[in-house]
From TrEMBL:
This is Phage integrase family protein. GO terms for molecular function: DNA binding. The keyword DNA-binding applies. Pfam families: Phage_integrase. It comes from Natranaerovirga pectinivora. PANTHER family: INTEGRASE_RECOMBINASE PROTEIN MJ0367-RELATED, PHAGE INTEGRASE-RELATED. Coiled coil: none annotated. The lineage of its organism: Bacteria, Bacillati, Bacillota, Clostridia, Lachnospirales. Belongs to the 'phage' integrase family. It comes from the Bacteria. InterPro entries: DNA_brk_join_enz, Integrase-like_cat_sf, Integrase_catalytic, Tyrosine_recombinase_XerCD. GO terms for biological process: DNA integration; DNA recombination. Residues 4-187 form the Tyr recombinase domain.
Length: 194
């Protein structure tokens, strides 16, 4: 897949993409693209946990460990080799557990036995069909990051920790934060005489 500059999704785009993947569609060339719940769930989990798609396709229910009254994800990131450990909300764990039960997937089996490339190709078909541009699997991770940033007082350090970036500068670039902050600062600074 071409290395496109991906962007975060709007809520409407996210809902439309997942709905279209779940329902299937007929392309303009009369090619039937079947519904694919596995890809819809994988992308939903990516958007909710902020993991890279390579880590999502290798995810097992057994990677989520009960720790007192919470659930904790314990994986080694495929891209960086870093250990990743953080809380998984109960709703997300229940969603995955239900998906696994519905599809007869054991705790040690991959939840999404599919390749990264297959997810990317399917998403490209969907976004082309919907006429959406600059969207790839990484858009779901970016949407997670932007949502966390916007809903937590623009805390770049929090987003950096959740994405496991090495520096805040990497996270700022990832979020395209600097330009927004410059514009906000200029707008707040205006001091015109009465």
């Amino acid at each position: 897949m071409a290395n496109i500059k991906t962007r975060a999704l709007t809520e409407e785009e996210y809902s439309l993409i997942i709905k279209t993947i779940r329902e299937g569609f007929l392309t303009k060339d009369n090619i039937k693209v079947r519904p694919n719940e596995r890809i819809a769930v994988a992308l939903t989990i990516q958007l909710n946990l902020g993991l890279r798609i390579g880590d999502i396709v290798n995810l097992r229910l057994s990677d989520i460990v009960k720790d007192g009254s919470r659930y904790r994800l314990e994986i080694k990131e495929q891209k960086t080799g870093k250990k990743r450990e953080f809380t998984v909300p109960q709703e997300i764990y229940s969603y995955l557990q239900s998906y696994a039960l519905d599809n007869s997937i054991g705790p040690k089996q991959k939840l999404f036995d599919i390749t990264v490339r297959a997810v990317q190709k399917h998403l490209k078909l969907v976004t082309d069909y919907l006429g959406l541009e600059n969207i790839g699997t990484h858009s779901f991770r970016k949407t997670f990051a932007v949502s966390i940033y916007n809903n937590n007082n623009y805390n770049v350090e929090l987003v950096r920790q959740l994405l496991q970036h090495s520096t805040v500068a990497v996270t700022q670039h990832y979020l395209s934060v600097q330009q927004r902050e410059v514009e906000d600062a200029l707008a707040k600074h205006i001091k015109l005489p009465s």
